[in-house]
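anyone seen this seq b4? input:
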Amino acid sequence: MAKVEAGMESMLEMYIFETNTLLEQLDEILLRTEDANVFSTEDINEIFRIMHTIKGSSAMMGFENLQQLAHKGEDMFFVIREKPEIAKDAHFVYELIFEVSDLYKAEIEYIQTSSDDEFTPTDFSKTFKKLMDATERLKAMEGGEAPAQIAPEAASAPTAPATGTQSGTMTVRVFFEDGCKMENLRAFLLLTKIKEEADVIFCEPHDVESNADSARDIVENGFFVTFRGFDGNNDAVLKTIEGAVNVQSYEIIDEAAVAPAPPAEKAEAPAEAVQQQPVQSEAAPAPAPAKAASAPAKTAESNAVTKAQEDIKKANGGQKQSLISVNLAKLDTLHDIVGEIITTESMVIANPDLDGLELESFSKAARQLRKLTDELQDTVMSIRMVPLAGVFQKMGRIVRDMKIKLNKDAELVLEGENTEVDKSIVDNLNDPLMHLVRNCMDHGIESDVQQRIAADKPEKATVKLSARHSAGEVIITVSDDGAGIDCNKVLAKAAKNGLLTKPESEYTEKEIQNMILLPGFSTNDVVTEYSGRGVGMDVVKSNIEQCGGTLSVESEQGKGTRFIIRIPLTLAIVEGMKLRVGPTIFTVPISSIKESLMVANNQLLNDTKQGEMIMIRGVCYPILRLHEKFKIETEVTNLEEGILLLVDVGGKNVCLFADRLIGEQPVVVKPFPKYLSQYNIKGEGLSGCTVMGDGTISLIIDVNNLISTS
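predicted toks r here
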């Protein structure tokens, strides 16, 4: 079956994006309220808004199972809204809503990855039953009485119209724009917005959510809604109706009147059932079909809302903040075009036909062009930059679930979550961070609270996620205050698995700690839900290296462990230093370079194990000759005649020897052709290539792999 109805395909991507965003907000609210063990009015209203929106958009897209899932969750929260304090004794509510959130995420992923032919909506009937049972249980906890107000969905599907009058109610007839299509779903979305501001008593047609034929009734007769605003304030509801999309006009029916009975003959219903009389009150002048004329006079509360909006506008410099969602593929295309512009600019400025010519006006124009391309590059890069907050906050759910299942009391602390990184890198960080946080919870945090107390630690453990910018890269740290890494245990397990490459006595503490990153390595003897199979940490390392980053481990037994991730801000355009080695030009990322220097003979040393070394300010660094590494013929083999580049990646330092420096230049990173992948070029220390100004190719050095393989 098709995932969505014909004509709705273009809306699917936006639906998925918005729903995932709302689910992340829902998880964040639930984590916060679970710690406080109480729902505030704002939290409950926000959860209702999320559920309403997801339910409405799912109905619009035709995903009935997802619509009903949100519907049942909303019913459960209606009981909590009536008496928020019952949540203190109803921890099962959190488990169920988290389950709903997980099911939604899984179904959305299924929608994204499955083809139309193989897509079959998931059956959530078991979860529906759990939610309905939980709703009845909450009602019983309330004292055995049903809520005083009508539940949201019950209100929208009455079996008979309301009779009599209710204090503070108002009935409105809404007309939608001609030709807007799907009027029933637009009415349902409007109803969803109204429920955020008021209790809906009645609506007609009452089945707009499930009956597509009701759209015809709405076109002919309008959409009737009877509601009572929270705290008796109906002005906010009218403002909501005014601001709703595709609403052409509305009129207020007498506030004392009730909604019309479902008409026997639809064409005559409005004339018989609706009392089209003006509302005689100061707060609501005589209505007219036009939107502006039907708005009631401002009350004190609506004036306060208007003032708050004006204050926000002043805070933004008198301007409204305008945000749009853009397909990432379009940004990638824009980014590629900017890269080509930078390459073409270099080709124009470095054209060999210009050598020896004095072109003052050309040089001036070239400088202006470089300035503009730099600004264009910075702007495009800033558009692609997104904060790490989204991926960081997802880890809160992992800590929450694991502390329950492992019976460990721990909290997640976030620092620097607003640090921004390229979107393509952020997308690849979710799995590595998840594995690291799980490792901290499972391996790091002590199971025995008494052990922590004896070590003079607080009973509640801490898992910390932090991020900061440093010299063109982002440093992300995942740490815990647990037991740390037992080097003896790690070394013994490595020896047992045959992973040692030299005598045990020759391994440093740092080398032993990094053994946990080896494929197939695990210190757990028993396989659990979270560890013991020897997979995870090696995947983390490889995923981070695919982003051009590095992973290192620091640990102190009894005090905790730190995993340090270093990743570039972006992968596509980097500032590079060009080096010449014989006829070949290499590019080294500026972020990896600490300094360049000429060699003096008295600085050179020869170590029996590490070979040639150089002494720089009392510290010895190994020397790596690029012409020997890549087997390039060159006339510059004397260290004193060439240049050394001191590079640093993840605390590992080495001096690269080249013939000479050419200069600094932004370069566009291009991947190697696929047919070269059989030669493991990246494993030898090359991450890609770039086109130089004269049209030649420069190889980009991956300093991390270069050091590791040398």
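Residues 153-315 form a domain with the Alpha-Beta Plaits fold (CATH 3.30.70.1110). The two ends are 55 Å apart (CA to CA). kinda curious what u guys think
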